[in-house]
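Below is a filled-in request sheet from our internal design queue. Each sheet records the structural input a requester submitted and the sequence that came back. We keep these sheets so that new team members can see what a complete request looks like end to end.

REQUESTER: design group, bay 2
PRIORITY: normal
MODE: inverse folding
CHAIN LENGTH: 356
BACKBONE (tokenized):
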């Protein structure tokens, strides 16, 4: 059988959740499990994340899936709802949703009596400069006053556009958030994703919202997971399926982009972009065999890649780590001009999945 397998390490997930607890001991943890738990498989991750306080998802469907699996923790819908009908379901199911535009507020107020929404927690989003979702600082205070007057419990929330770097917008976003928070006291607050959890301990407030750090990938371009004391949760593995000896001037793969300059041993591995392995290849890229990095050569095909095994012991059936504990997903991403988040989320259905 073709070997292409995604292994999920539940203990690593628990370890990383514990790291969040160490870093933000006074905040509740909203574990972000949107997009199928960043591609890790929401069902398996929920089981390993049982010690979290709440879950964060992008939309109602993702929240309902969690409820159907039997989990009763609070769930926040970070993009809010997309229709009036969805708002009634949010209220009925006692989900917590972000509101970021006036129509959502009207739906909330219209339906609160019918579904007994008294005290329902509502996350009110401040657009502090990212200009994606949210009310501007000039309008949000009135929105919050209105929701409070209807007995909703408000959580003031925002998202940093550059928490992973030292961009000047960070200070502006932070100051706006603090000013609005002060004007709306008493109010619950939440503004930290993974990068901000590390960077801004003074902004942890009531709820932190870790995503990528739970899965053991880095939110920062200049700090890897070892420096952050996180453990990679996913290992993506395949096998060597063929070995070839080639001579100088022979080429490998589609487009003949690689030409040997001397005799070499190459191995073909059962993985390709049809499994979700990236094809972009803008910088030299590697896989790992027995914890040793091994260079890739030529183009990534739909089902196969080629690697240079001239200097290592390799046989048909030898296991190859595409990413995991030895070859970090963030390094594969950097070699392909993207971020670990994207590679994790866009794996295809083809690799088998196994939880350890
Ligand atoms: C509103 C919000 N909060 C938290 C997160 C988690 O971010 P990260 O995965 O960088 O920790 C995201 C991710 O996209 C988000 O959109």
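RETURNED SEQUENCE:
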């Amino acid at each position: 059988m073709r070997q292409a397998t995604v292994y999920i390490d539940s203990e690593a997930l628990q370890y990383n959740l514990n790291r969040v607890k160490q870093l933000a001991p006074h905040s509740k943890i909203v574990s972000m499990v949107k997009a199928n738990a960043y591609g890790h498989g929401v069902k398996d991750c929920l089981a390993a994340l049982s010690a979290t306080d709440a879950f964060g998802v992008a939309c109602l469907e993702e929240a309902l899936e969690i409820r159907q699996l039997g989990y009763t923790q609070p769930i926040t819908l970070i993009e809010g709802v997309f229709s009036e009908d969805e708002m009634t379901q949010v209220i009925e199911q006692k989900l917590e949703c972000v509101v970021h535009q006036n129509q959502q507020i009207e739906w909330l107020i219209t339906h609160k009596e019918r579904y007994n929404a008294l005290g329902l927690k509502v996350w009110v989003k401040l657009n502090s400069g990212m200009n994606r979702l949210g009310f501007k600082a000039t309008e949000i205070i009135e929105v919050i006053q209105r929701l409070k007057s209807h007995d909703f419990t408000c959580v003031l929330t925002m998202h940093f556009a550059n928490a992973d770097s030292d961009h000047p917008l960070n200070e502006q976003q932070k100051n706006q958030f603090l000013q609005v928070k002060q004007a709306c006291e008493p109010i619950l607050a939440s503004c930290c994703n993974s990068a901000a959890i590390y960077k801004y301990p003074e902004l942890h407030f009531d709820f932190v919202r870790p995503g990528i750090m739970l899965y053991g990938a880095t939110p920062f371009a200049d700090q890897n997971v070892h420096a952050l004391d996180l453990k990679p949760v996913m290992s993506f593995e395949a096998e060597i399926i063929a070995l070839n000896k080639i001579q100088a001037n022979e080429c490998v793969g589609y487009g003949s982009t690689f030409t040997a300059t001397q005799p070499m041993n190459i191995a073909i591995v059962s993985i390709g972009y049809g499994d979700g392995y990236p094809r972009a290849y803008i910088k030299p890229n590697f896989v790992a065999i027995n914890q040793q990095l091994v260079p890739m050569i030529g183009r990534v095909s739909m089902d196969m890649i080629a690697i240079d095994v001239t200097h290592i012991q390799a046989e048909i059936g030898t296991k190859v780590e595409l990413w995991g504990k030895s070859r970090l997903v963030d390094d594969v991403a950097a070699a392909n001009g993207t971020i670990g988040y994207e590679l994790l989320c866009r794996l295809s259905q083809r690799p088998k999945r196994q939880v350890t």
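SHEET NOTES:
- The two ends are 21 Å apart (CA to CA).
- The chain has eleven helices and 18 strands.
FILED BY: M.R.
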